[in-house]
Amino acid sequence: MSLLEFTNLSVEFETLNGGFRAVDNVSLTVDPGEVVAIVGESGSGKSVSMLAVMGLLPWTAKVTADRLTFQGRDMLSMRPKEKRKIIGKDISMIFQEPTTSLNPCFTVGYQIIETLKKHTDLSRAERKNRAIELLRLVGIPAPERRVTAFPHQLSGGMNQRVMIAMAIACDPKLLIADEPTTALDVTIQAQILELLIKIKEENDMGLVLITHDMGVVAETADRVIVQYAGQQVEQQDVKGLFRDPHHPYTAALLAALPERATGDQLPSIPGVVPGQFDRPAGCLFSPRCSFVFDRCHKEQPTQAGKELGCALCHTPLVAGKPQNEAA
Amino acid sequence: MLRLILNKIGLLIPTFIGVTIISFLFIRLLPGDPVLLLAGERGITGDRYADLMHQFGFDQPLWRQYLDYLVGILHGDLGTSISTRRPVISEFFTLFPATMELSLCAIFFAVVVGLPAGVIAALYRGKTPDHAVMTTALVGYSMPIFWWGLLLIILFSGILGWTPVSGRISLLYYFPSVTGFMLIDSLLSGQAGAFESAVSHLILPTIVLGTIPLAVIARQTRSAMLEVLDEDYVRTARAKGLAPFRVIGLHALRNALIPVITTIGLQIGVLFAGAILTETIFSWPGIGKWMIDSIFRRDYPAVQGGLLLIAIIVMLVNLLVDVTYGLINPKIRHTR
Ligand SMILES: Nc1ncnc2c1ncn2[C@@H]1O[C@H](COP(=O)(O)OP(=O)(O)O)[C@@H](O)[C@H]1O
Ligand code: SF4
Ligand SMILES: [Mg+2]
């Protein structure tokens, strides 16, 4: 049984200017011990889709899905109270900005212990010891001292380690890491990723890694989901994706990859992800696609088969060449 | 932290000097003088007048009088009240507990009602509870104290007959003052019904005096909460599976309290101003009523001494607030 499974998850925000679909029919499965990467530029709905799974979106968000299960249990019909027994224990999440994600008014120790108190039967002394042990586990030096530190007394990298310690406190089955290294120095980034992978291996944990960095994907992921403007445009295992991307957007992301060597972090595809007000008709990627043709402006593409990475494109690429162009 | 406190105290010294000047000049700028008012309708002969003015030292040049006042302060002597012939300091501290009791009750009332109201308004932002709280706060804030006090008296004392109109306790009860706080002394006295009487006398003045701070606290809490609720760490708290009550009441509120504490501190000064009016309306035998009476009598030593003591108390409270602020905000606590 897969750990997390959802099909056709959509999130629509109620805004002053009407509804805005930030996530549109996204599907995903994660198995124990598997690393699934979700990639896409900023604004693709990566965070929103995972926050929807966690139930952490504001009330303006309407979440729908055909199916959303965790370990076979239906999360859609689950009562909030039941859900809170899973959230933070069996599924946990870490965020992009470690420093603002920790409460400035409480010591890091307190914030870890709080999770333990909520989800375990450990005694007061045991919780404290476990917190120190967790800090040691995530590579924080002198954890006995750091346990009483406030977040502002630690560096960003250290705070992210604290976040990880907090997230793995109750041995979760699934960890969702939302751009866990984006806010950190390059040298620290690698360390944090290594730590996440190590924890995953040791606990046979499922890991959903949200990132916009193809380099990170190549190093860590088993499977990759590419998201664009809220839609899932491609899904493949990592080898296949790098060898033969089927969606023009994936191809463009990969083509932009070598430029990272010049120090430019973002894949340089001209243009930006369309937001609420500039969504084109037809294919959402059409304004930026180098394979665009007439039909793309009129008709929304449908998902191709598994052999073509479920590419959301009228003419999925094979070996860099558009297919069924005749159509 | 200690450094922080010392810094604050250093800043208080010029304020203190300013207050001595203002309190000294304020009462002397009003037309009339204590001797004339002491004489009242009957009038006074020129000789007797000059004699009394000399006796009180009011015939001296202003700078001389001010200097005497300062020297007195340095010796811890604020002079003697002209109307009661008692030292200003002992007069003040006999009456002060009454004002303090009223002020504490008022601020307690304001916090206990204003804080939750602000939190609820923030949680229901833009919806009915929010509008209800904000409108009530606006009305409460703009309500003139005098008018508001009379309104409550008419309703609760007049029409409904639920509460007494004036004083701190019914004249039926008499017991020695131990702490100066009527709520405590009435309990200590062991007299049946005394405590209830004290409480019923306190209710209306508390509401009247607490209304403006309540409105300010509710508004400040709301805006602080709105800011904090969007913070990443609130999301983190929810991601731990914590119950909403804990997320809001602990993680969010604890941060929102930082600016609110400052607001509460600033309200103390406003409270003393309000106390003057409230005590007058309810014949509450406290500092406020005493100050008003002294001003009408042009009781120079009482007014300048009373104002100075009030200023010192406000400054002390603000210092206390600063310290609390430091304690509650770890970021400040750790700066040396
Ligand atoms: N609370 C919200 N209300 C309205 N729109 C939102 C909200 N949160 C996110 N969005 C919108 O949803 C889209 C996807 O956001 P997000 O999931 O954060 O992107 P990503 O994580 O891929 O960078 C963005 O266009 C963003 O503006
Ligand atoms: S449908 Fe057309 S515009 Fe969209 S990705 Fe495919 S080729 Fe490009
Ligand atoms: Mg994001």
UniProtKB/TrEMBL annotation, chain A:
GO terms for molecular function: ATP binding; ATP hydrolysis activity. GO terms for biological process: peptide transport; transmembrane transport. Residues 4-254 form the ABC transporter domain. It is found in: Cell inner membrane. Belongs to the ABC transporter superfamily. It is a peripheral membrane protein. Keywords: ATP-binding, Cell membrane, Membrane, Nucleotide-binding, Transport. Pfam families: ABC_tran, oligo_HPY. This is Dipeptide transport system ATP-binding protein. SMART domains: AAA. GO terms for cellular component: plasma membrane.
UniProtKB/TrEMBL annotation, chain B:
InterPro entries: BPD_transp_1_N, MetI-like, MetI-like_sf. Its main location: membrane. GO terms for cellular component: plasma membrane. SUPFAM superfamilies: MetI-like (SSF161098). It is a multi-pass membrane protein. The keyword Cell membrane applies. It comes from the Bacteria. Keywords: Cell membrane, Membrane, Transmembrane, Transmembrane helix, Transport. The chain crosses the membrane at residues 9-30, 104-125, 145-165, 198-218, 256-282, 302-328. One of its GO terms (molecular function) is dipeptide transmembrane transporter activity. Residues 96-321 form the ABC transmembrane type-1 domain. It is found in: Cell membrane. Belongs to the binding-protein-dependent transport system permease family. This is Dipeptide transport system permease protein. It comes from Breoghania corrubedonensis.
